[in-house]
Amino acid sequence: MESTDPDLRARRIAEAFVRAIPHAGLLGMVMREAGPGRAVIAMAYDTRLIGDPATGVIHGGAVSTLMDTCGGAAVLTHPEAPLSTATLDLRIDYMRAAAPGQGIVAEAECYHMTRSVAFVRAEARQEDGVRIAAATGAFTVERGT
Question: In terms of Cα–Cα distance, which of 97, 145, 110 is closest to 10?
Fold first, then answer.
């Protein structure tokens, strides 16, 4: 019997979404939380993700991938339950570089959905809670026929 708990449903969808993306696995992304229209994904610090060897800072591309993936998971967990999604537009404002040695946690919320487009807000923070980036995005919405 399928659970009717919306948080459990969202968690299962978000976890399956992250597992289905090989790049997310290579970057070490792990689901932390999910609920209707929201997701939290963590990415541990890994020397393979360093963008500047002199500073040890994680590459901005890894951060943007984390935020993009988290945004997609938030769309798929929305109560209107789209079948699939893809990024149309993602604007990321980097506030600061992540501190070397710190993992990053992204949190995204799908705050509005039309027939064909979902709108998302996201933030990325270091493990210690310091905000490093904020994003807004638009994602496709594919519904069943």
Answer: 110
